[in-house]
Amino acid sequence: QVQVVESGGTTVQAGGSLRLSCAASGCTYNNYLVSWHRQAPGKERDVLASIDLYGTPWSADSVKGRFTISRDNAKNTVYLQMNSLKPEDTAIYYCKVACGTDYWGQGTQVTVSS
Prior knowledge:
Layout: E1 3-7, E2 11-13, E3 18-25, E4 33-39, E5 46-51, E6 57-59, E7 67-72, E8 77-82, E9 91-99, E10 101-104, E11 108-113
C-alpha cells in the first residue's frame, strides 16, 4: 500500500523560505517518480518539480531557480525547498507518487503574505 503524506505548509512572509516534506512509502518499483504540484484557488493543478529514485531532478521553468527538489531515500522523503516566496505562490501543495498508478497526498497549505 503506497502512502503519501505532505507536511511543512504554513504562512510565511513574501521573500521568505519554506521546506515542504513528502513522506512516500510502499512503492516497490525499482524506480519511480515523486513530484510536487500546487493548486491555487480557481486554478488548475500544476506540476512544479519531480525526482526519481536515483535523484535525477526536473523543475518547471516557472519555479526554476527558486524551488529545489531533493530526496532522502533512507527516510523515504522528498523535499521541496522554496526560496524567495511570492504571494502568487499561495496554494495547496500536493505530492504525487507515480507507482503504476498515481498516488496523491492530502495536500499542505502554503500562504505567502505580502
